């Protein structure tokens, strides 16, 4: 028997780094697939496990999955009733976003933030490619920066190309286990390669046809950092479907709404049609951003077709 942490998942095999530093290829005992919530991956990167070596082999079987401190989850791409655990036992989650090349919608950003809020994982927005932006795009960046920081989120402006903001980014990662996610093409791997030269994560180009990134990361994988801690690199996520959310509690995942919702006339206010709604009053006064409220409505109605 040995203990370790899952640092890579390819669907059927898992790479586990045991306490001695050695990595072992492991598979899962069948009955674990029937336990807990319905997911496409019963074992996730970041899981702490116990393994038993198979007789006469260098491989092992995962026998115990320890209770998770937390995890972050999304709906599986093609299975509407199933979900996919992106990573477990995280100190923070970072969304790498871009104003353009490719564009990250605020709807996508807000679904990520709502999911992080729901699972009590501190979230940070890192906006990359600042060296590429026109005056109009830089103004858009400044607007988003002002709105999200006023809500209480940490936002970094960085450029993997010229190094701007990378010292702050490196300090953010130090001695923490961090999920790094975002659309393909936003520069996740390029950022990591810049702050840790021993890592050579594959980077890709932007497709000129659709202005979207080409997938370079196939499976979630966890890497030790020379500043201490771990980074979980994930496949670029095209969609971030919400998992198992109740409409009655959705507004609690928006910090600026949570702070004033007790002022609504009705305790069960949905902030849509009720009179004397503190959220709508704040919206009309401009203290809640219009796009955040619209994204709330889209999530409430499960409608992500007209994202900002």
Q: How many β-strand runs?
A: 13
Q: Which secondary-structure class do the elements indicate?
A: alpha/beta
What is the C-alpha radius of gyration, as a whole number of Å? 21 Å
Query: What's the N-to-C terminus distance?
Result: 51 Å
Helix content estimate: 10-25%
The secondary-structure element order is EEEEEEEEHEHEHEHEEHHH
Largest sheet: 6 strands, mixed
- Percent strand equals 15-25%
* Uncertain residue segments: 203-218
Rough shape? globular
Short description:
With 308 residues, the chain is of the alpha/beta class. It has seven helices and 13 strands. Helix 1 crosses helix 7.
Could you outline the blueprint of secondary structure elements for this entry?
Layout: E1 2-9, E2 14-18, E3 23-28, E4 48-53, E5 60-65, E6 71-75, E7 83-88, E8 92-97, H1 106-118, E9 123-127, H2 135-151, E10 154-157, H3 166-173, E11 176-181, H4 188-195, E12 221-224, E13 229-233, H5 255-258, H6 278-285, H7 290-300
Parallel strand pairs: 3-5, 8-9, 8-11, 9-10, 11-13
Antiparallel strand pairs: 1-2, 1-4, 2-3, 4-5, 6-7, 12-13
Helix pairs in contact: 1-7
Structural write-up:
By secondary structure, this protein is α/β, with parallel strands linked by helices. The protein is 22% helix and 23% strand. Helix 1 crosses helix 7. It is globular, with a radius of gyration of 21 Å. It starts with a strand and ends in an 8-residue tail after the last helix. Mean pLDDT is 85; it is low at 203-218.
Features:
alpha/beta; globular; 13 strands; 5-stranded mixed beta barrel; 308 residues; 6-stranded mixed beta sheet
């Amino acid at each position: 028997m040995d203990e370790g942490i899952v640092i890579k998942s390819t669907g059927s095999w898992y790479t586990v780094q045991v306490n001695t530093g050695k990595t072992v290829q492991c598979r899962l005992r069948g009955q674990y697939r029937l336990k807990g919530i319905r997911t496409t991956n019963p074992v996730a990167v970041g899981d702490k496990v116990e393994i038993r070596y198979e007789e006469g082999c260098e491989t092992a079987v995962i026998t115990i999955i320890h209770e998770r401190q937390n995890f972050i989850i999304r709906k599986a791409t093609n299975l509407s009733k199933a979900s996919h655990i992106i990573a477990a036992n995280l100190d923070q989650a970072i969304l790498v976003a871009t104003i353009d090349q490719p564009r990250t919608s605020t709807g996508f950003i807000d679904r990520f933030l709502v999911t992080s809020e729901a699972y009590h994982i501190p979230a940070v927005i890192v906006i990359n490619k600042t060296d590429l932006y026109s005056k109009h795009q830089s103004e858009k960046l400044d607007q988003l920066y002002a709105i999200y920081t006023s809500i209480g989120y940490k936002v970094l402006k960085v450029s993997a190309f010229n190094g701007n903001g990378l010292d702050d980014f490196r300090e953010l990662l130090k001695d923490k286990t961090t999920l790094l996610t975002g659309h393909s093409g936003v520069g996740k791997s390029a950022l990591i390669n810049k702050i840790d030269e021993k890592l050579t994560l594959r980077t890709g180009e932007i497709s000129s046809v659709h202005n979207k990134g080409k997938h370079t990361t196939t499976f979630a994988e966890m890497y030790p950092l020379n500043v201490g801690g771990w980074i979980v690199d994930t496949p670029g996520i095209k969609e971030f479907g919400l998992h198992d959310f109740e409409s009655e509690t959705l507004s609690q995942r928006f910090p600026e709404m949570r702070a004033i919702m007790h002022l609504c006339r009705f305790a069960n206010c949905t902030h849509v049609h009720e009179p004397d709604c503190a959220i709508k009053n704040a919206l009309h006064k401009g203290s809640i951003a219009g796009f955040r409220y619209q994204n709330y409505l889209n999530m409430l109605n499960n409608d992500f077709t007209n994202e900002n």
